[in-house]
Amino acid sequence: MAPPLASSATAPGRPCPLCGSGVADVLPAASDEKGHCFPRRRCTRCGTGFLDPLPTAAQLNAAYAVSYYGEGATKFPAPIERLREAAAVGRARHLLRGLPTRARILDVGCGDGRLLRLLGQRAPAAELHGIELPGPAADRAAAVPGLRLHRGTLENAPYPDRHFDLISLVHVLEHLPEPGAALDRLTRLLRPRGRLLLSFPNLASLQARCFGTAWFHLDAPRHLALPPPEAVRQHLIARGLALESLHHACWEQNLYGWLQSALNALDRDRNLLYERLKGNRSHLPERHAAVALHAALAALLLPPALVAELTALLARSGATVEMAFRSPS
Ligand SMILES: [Zn+2]
After folding, report:
1. What spacing in Å lies between the alpha carbon of 240 and ligand 1's midpoint?
2. Quick one: 123 and 188 in the same domain?
3. What is the whole-number distance in angstroms between the Cα of residue 225 and the centre of ligand 1?
4. Quick one: 139 and 184 in the same domain?
5. Concatenated DSSP letters for 192-256?
């Protein structure tokens, strides 16, 4: 089942940012936490959903203000950060499997450098590279021992082709205005038998289809394009890569997605609980009672959310997915 269309007619606009097709349906606009609306379309060829037009620089600067990364030394309070750390430890172990001792590793959109720090602790001979836009997250990443940080974008990163044994993009692909061109560059950057790890929201998932514009992972205007996993698979296979694994289980993202999406469907204050969990006290500071109500509702919704998540797992329809690809010899 596809997301509902605002109009069955196709409309002119920018080409699909994954496959380049010029034909796309109009989707209902996505809204942010402040109620601003962002028009969306979906490519009729590959199914990628994307904002069209792209948000302005001013809109993106506002969306990536300090509150996006958390106002404290970390993005979330300590208990949630411990869960994120545990998830990153699991990912680091998974990534290091089969890598050469002196592997050259790149994390695109490395945030505060958490994953690279963990990789460096477990593989001290590895060469660690990260890309992050200038800002508070990059400042934190710069403190990771041994990390070679490029403060900028993938497009202007000065790496030669066939340079990396492992490239990861953990919830980054959806933030890129041109994911197709980015995947093409990443394919060229991989050494023979190199691995590319992608995790990103799944627009074709049960959760996305249940909640439409209330879906937590829609996250406009930060998420510029949401290619379905099958479209990503076809794009990379056409460029010579092989799919090694596709995982639908991601508890720290997918279970919370059910809860926050349900809250978004019930109340106009989108992501109110999520913003408070991030410690963003400037977001609707007068809504104390609503925050308590949202927290109570989230507790009540936890059992059905667990059932929904198990159903999604059985249906192999995770709200976010993790895909690993291998370049040819
Ligand atoms: Zn497309």
Report:
1. 19
2. yes
3. 10
4. yes
5. EEEEEEEEEE-TTSHHHHHHGGG-GGG-TTT--EE--HHHHHHHHHTTT-EEEEEE---HHHHHH
